[in-house]
Design brief:
The chain is an alpha/beta fold. Helix content is 29%, strand content 23%. The chain is built from ten helices and 15 strands. The strands form four sheets. Strands 4-3-5-12-6 form a five-stranded mixed beta sheet. It starts with 10 loop residues before the first strand and ends in an 8-residue tail after the last helix.
């Protein structure tokens, strides 16, 4: 008996995989640019993939994207940027998905794995200033914010660190895509906001950053600036393929920083930051932070160790921070 023929127009990869491969992505401009950049890079590394109709982007609107008028903690946390994407993977509607890794929960659903991480962009946060702000000063980064300035942000991590440094500041929720937030700041709806420098760079909007904040002023979110790709754990062939574009250092950093989050087990109501830096190719410096949203409590701590022990170091640092925090911080 002859083998079954594929439907007209459908290509088949070796080992029987149907083409095009379906790639899940959120619908924001940044998410789509990240996805296209990843696919271009994948083709560059694996030229055999550079055939017509190899990939099909599938835009998935998540709960986190739909609800824009409330803080993430009020609607279920950062997992809401991935819940529907995970469901699409489980239901075989997509083959893999591209994420901003800082938006991906530490505990992935059963059967879904983090297949690869890409080279990290600059992890720092950028200050976006409105008309009432003074000129930016790298020597005193927050001096440009007027007394009782209104800061628009949906990030409790950013709010806590600003509030601890400048208790006079006021805060309001500012959500939406990058362009929307930039427009609201420039129009004076809020006095200032913060955005990830990595996102601005990927959108070609780096010039919109009035001041890039040093990490001793604003510790980034865990995995900020890293793009990660999820897929089904059972899909060994695709996992092997994606492994060809894995960035080893970014995986080490992501492993350490996500271990800090996992040890702290904080919700989106708990301000947490984490950043791993390479000291040598074998050693890392890891910093973690936990705070109250109003800035009345902030604990920051660092440790160093071997890169091969990234997960253990992250767990150790997270446990150390948690042990010295008020119990109600994680309630």
């Amino acid at each position: 008996m002859s083998p079954a023929q594929p439907p007209s127009g459908m290509q088949i990869m070796p080992h029987g995989r149907e083409l095009p491969l379906k790639v899940g992505t959120r619908g924001s401009p940044l998410a789509r640019i990240q996805t296209r950049a990843f696919l271009d890079f994948l083709v560059d590394v694996c030229p055999v993939l550079g055939v017509a109709d190899m990939f099909e982007e599938v835009t998935i609107r998540t709960t986190g994207d739909r609800v824009q008028d409330r803080a993430l903690a009020e609607i279920g946390g950062k997992g809401l940027f991935a819940k529907e994407i995970h469901e699409a993977l489980r239901d075989l509607r997509i083959d893999f998905a591209v994420h901003s890794l800082k938006d991906l929960e530490t505990g992935l659903p059963l059967g879904i794995t983090l297949g690869c991480v890409l080279t990290r962009e600059d992890a720092r946060d950028a200050l976006i200033l409105g008309p009432r702000c003074g000129p930016p000063d790298e020597n005193d980064p927050l001096a440009c914010l007027p007394h009782r300035a209104l800061i628009g942000t949906a990030s409790v991590r950013r709010q806590a660190q600003l509030a601890q440094a400048r208790p006079d500041l006021r805060f309001t929720i500012l959500r939406g895509n990058v362009q929307t937030r930039l427009e609201k700041v420039r129009a004076g709806e809020v006095d200032a906001s913060l955005l990830a420098l990595a996102g601005l760079r990927r959108l070609g909007l780096e010039d919109e950053a009035d001041l890039v904040l040093p990490t001793d002023v604003m510790l980034p979110a865990a995995c900020q600036g890293i793009v990660g790709v999820t897929l089904r754990t059972a899909d060994r062939e695709l996992i092997h393929l994606l492994g060809s574009v894995e960035d080893a250092w970014s995986r080490i950093a992501a492993t350490a920083e996500r271990a800090v989050l996992a040890a702290l087990d904080g919700s989106c109501r708990t301000p947490i930051g984490a950043q791993a830096r390479m000291i040598t190719p074998q050693r890392i410096h890891l910093t973690g932070l936990v705070a109250r949203e109003d800035g009345s409590f902030l604990l920051r701590r660092s440790l160093e160790g071997m890169a091969i022990d990234a997960e253990r170091l992250g767990t150790e640092l997270g446990n150390s921070l948690r042990a010295d925090c008020p119990a109600d911080l994680f309630a």
